[in-house]
Amino acid sequence: MRRYPERPVVGVGAVILDGGRVVLVKRGQEPLKGKWSIPGGAVEIGETCPEAIAREVLEETGLVVQVGPVVAVLDRIRRDDEGRVAFHYVLVDYVCRVLGGTATAASDADDCQWVALADTAQYDLTDGTLEVILDAVKIDRTSR
Questions:
Q1: pLDDT tens, 56-88?
Q2: Which one of 14, 84, 88, 113 has the fewest CB atoms closer than 10 angstroms to its CB?
Q3: Residue 4 falls within a domain, yes or no?
Q4: Does a structural domain hold residue 1?
Q5: How many alpha carbons lie under 13 Å from residue 17 in its C-beta half-sphere?
């Protein structure tokens, strides 16, 4: 975990689209354990953001993806009860398309599912996830 960081951690997220579906993962670790989100994780030293998202998606879901355009750049800051910054991430989310593999929960995900876009609001999503998915759908439609 990256609790009480000295500086923000750069993270990446993948909005993996296929027709009218998106991949959601149930978070297996804090922060936000048990919530549903898009797959992703931290960028490692020497890795580009697209390389990081391809690696994280493979580790977390078993899917091989083609990384597309950026959807959003977001700050995620969570404070503890005393107001100290417990987590601080700068997230770069991308539209992605599946090239291969089978969606299955791996590494730090408790579950992984293809979800119909119309059903995403029924999941206990992390804050802002639904908006990022909807923005990704718009970007994906215009970039084809």
A1: 999 999 999 999 999 999 998 989 999 999 989
A2: 84
A3: no
A4: no
A5: 24
